[in-house]
Design brief:
Blueprint (H helix, E strand, L loop, with lengths): L6 H19 L11 E7 L5 E6 L5 E5 L3 E5 L5 E6 L5 E2 L11 E6 L3 H4 L1 E8 L6 E9 L6 E12 L18 E3 L6 E4 L18 E5 L19 E4 L4 E6 L6 E5 L6 E5 L51 E3 L6 E6 L12 E5 L5 E6 L5 E6 L8 E6 L5 E5 L4 E6 L1
Parallel strand pairs: 5-6
Antiparallel strand pairs: 1-25, 2-3, 3-4, 4-5, 7-8, 8-9, 9-10, 11-12, 12-13, 13-14, 15-16, 16-17, 17-18, 19-20, 20-21, 21-22, 23-24, 24-25
The structure holds calcium ion.
């Protein structure tokens, strides 16, 4: 008797194989040697979270642009530490406008002993408003915030609306301690002010390098007559700072003008080559040629002008052709990242993605790929947690934990 063949077991097997194949691709589409990424939303409903930092006890400090500094303690409790009314320490001079407000946050490398927290914020303490780097102390229970000292109080702020945008534009705002030299690096912006990035007497359009009191770091090689707190100059609007594992090389991730987002390895005293001031014979609205041309030939103002500044800092990577709002960046560290270990993760705002850059020994980018499977969100902050996971703050109000599995 001929045995009857049922299609049901075959169909079941097919569906089972298809199911596991599908699971294997989700959510990251990992290739051999690449990690799969598991994403967890650990906070949501926040108002423009801008930056975060982890304490050794597991607490996560984070900023909201228009409200101030918060902590999510290791037990999940959230407290408002500093900023508008209701915070443990209120700041009457704090305000938010345009791209400015409470931006970067960094913890002292010796936080466990000295409990010092640093934030970058807009202040109207003086008639001419500025961005400031403010130092605070917070007690071990995250209830008492005290000892406010404004260690840098003279970072330029865009005072009013212009043809190029609103007040508060291009304020920079990322602050990071280098684990290699121990200094605090501070990213500032050009304020839509043409001469500012190449003006060595003012702090806009720069990367600053200071000690914990805000004084110039030793080894800042700013040209003679310049402000000694300047580490590099000639920047547009640096949004990310990262330190390469192993060498400590500092990188700036910089928001471009409609073309040319840049990732640049920095060296002390270097000129980033951005000069949006009009050259002789050129006229630009409000004296700012950042979106047009600063030169008689009509070339778009370059992010790195190697014709006028042949010794300018060379970018490692240029998101050529279409600025997509480069924002934060951080190196992935740890063997759990597999093939991604040592890559530079770069977040994009309008581009709504995270790119991974592979760098050679000379800090130049040899390959770029996208972390697959993530929702399209404006990526505002990227930080490695003490657990080795990558934490992401989005403009949409969420904080994610990206774990490699
Ligand atoms: Ca540049």
């Amino acid at each position: 008797m001929k045995r009857k063949t049922s299609v049901l077991p075959m169909l079941f097997t097919f569906l089972l194989v298809a199911f596991y194949a599908h699971c294997g691709r989700e959510p990251s589409g990992a290739a051999a040697g690449e990690p799969r990424i598991h994403r967890t939303v650990i906070m949501s409903g926040l108002s423009n979270p801008w930056d975060l930092a982890f304490a050794p006890d597991g607490a996560m400090l984070f900023t909201e642009k228009c409200r101030g500094l918060f902590v999510r303690a290791s037990d999940g409790t959230v407290r408002h530490l500093f900023g508008i009314r209701g915070a443990a320490l209120e700041a009457d001079d704090f305000f938010c406008q345009g791209q400015s407000g409470m931006l970067g946050v960094a913890l002292d490398p010796a936080f466990a002993e000295n409990r010092r927290v640093f934030v970058y914020m807009a202040s109207q303490a003086n008639r001419v408003r500025t961005n400031r780097v403010v130092r605070l102390t917070v007690d071990e229970t995250y209830v008492v915030v005290a000892d406010r000292i404004d260690i840098i109080d003279d970072i330029p702020f865009k005072q009013s609306f212009s043809r190029w945008g609103r007040a508060g534009a291009h304020s920079g705002g990322r602050i990071r301690f280098s684990p290699y030299d121990g200094f605090l690096y501070v990213a500032t912006g050009d304020n839509h002010d043409g001469p500012l990035p190449q003006d060595l007497s003012r702090l806009g359009g720069k990367v600053l390098r200071v000690n914990r009191d805000g004084l110039a770091a030793s080894g800042n090689a700013v040209p003679a007559g310049g402000d000694p707190r300047i580490f590099t100059y000639g920047h547009r609007n640096v949004q990310g700072l990262a330190f390469r594992p192993g060498t400590g090389q500092v990188f700036a991730c910089e928001h471009g003008p409609g073309h040319d987002d840049e990732v640049t390895p920095l060296s002390s005293g270097g000129n980033g080559g951005w000069d949006p001031a009009p050259m002789p014979g050129v006229s630009c609205w409000h004296g700012y040629c950042g979106y047009t041309s600063n030169n008689p030939e009509g070339r778009p103002t370059p992010m790195t002008d190697l014709i006028r500044f042949p010794d300018a800092l060379k970018p490692s990577w240029n998101n050529r052709g279409d600025s997509e709002g480069m924002g934060p960046c951080v190196f992935l560290e740890g063997l759990h990242w597999q093939d991604w270990e040592g890559r530079l993760a770069v977040g994009f705002l309008r581009g709504a993605r995270i790119e991974l850059l592979t760098l050679d020994a000379a800090d130049m980018t040899t390959d770029a790929s996208i972390i697959p499977g993530l929702p399209s969100q404006r990526m505002r902050s990227l930080v490695l947690g003490p657990d080795g996971a990558l934490y992401v703050a989005t403009d949409g109000g969420e904080i994610w934990r990206l774990e490699s599995i």
